[in-house]
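Example 9 (inverse folding). The structure is encoded as follows.
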């Protein structure tokens, strides 16, 4: 065995050390990315659970801010028109006809504005359909609602599984996509 007189590292030793460090950094980056994706999915799941609880509270209590025939009474879920009204849109037949600035968190007790903000930082709560809707659960309609974006989709339905714009919406589905693109569905308690 030959003894080395110099105190420094050889070029081969430096290269091996750098390769090992690069591999460890790559593995660490992949692990951190995976943890961040899991955290975003947990945030989405938590948001959907809060919205579902808020919808169940709306079912039990009725609309706290407006009246409008069958649309706003207890024992039903909000339809398309009531959701639009809660977002500040003018709706004929509602009293008051419009609430400027909306009242979504009041309509869904227990939610906050953050419940409706996706991990990407945008207001993400959308209706599955507004005009000329297919029956509930239609995949094309659902894909159009997602529009390749990070969204939470609300689908109110009547007893015949048709999208419910107004009146007696007896059930709902909420949808969200995880980081892998898998669609998850949360159904109302009264299915």
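The amino acid assigned to each position is listed next.
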């Amino acid at each position: 065995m030959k003894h080395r007189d110099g105190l420094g590292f050889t070029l081969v030793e430096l290269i091996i050390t750098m390769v090992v460090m690069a591999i460890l950094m790559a593995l660490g980056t992949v692990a951190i990315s995976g943890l961040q994706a899991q955290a975003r999915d947990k945030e989405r799941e938590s948001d959907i659970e809060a919205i579902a609880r808020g919808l169940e509270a709306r079912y039990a209590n009725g609309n706290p801010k407006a009246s409008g025939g069958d649309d706003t009474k207890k024992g039903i879920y909000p339809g398309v028109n009531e959701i639009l009204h809660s977002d500040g849109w003018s709706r004929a037949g509602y009293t008051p006809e419009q609430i400027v600035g909306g009242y979504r968190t009041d309509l869904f007790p227990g939610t906050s504005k953050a419940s409706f903000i996706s991990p990407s930082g945008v207001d993400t709560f959308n209706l599955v359909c507004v005009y000329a809707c297919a029956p509930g659960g239609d995949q094309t309609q659902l894909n159009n609602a997602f529009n390749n974006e990070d969204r939470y989709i609300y689908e109110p339905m009547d007893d015949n599984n048709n999208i419910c714009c107004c009146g007696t919406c007896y059930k709902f589905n909420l949808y969200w996509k995880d980081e892998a693109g898998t669609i998850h569905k949360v159904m109302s308690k009264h299915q």
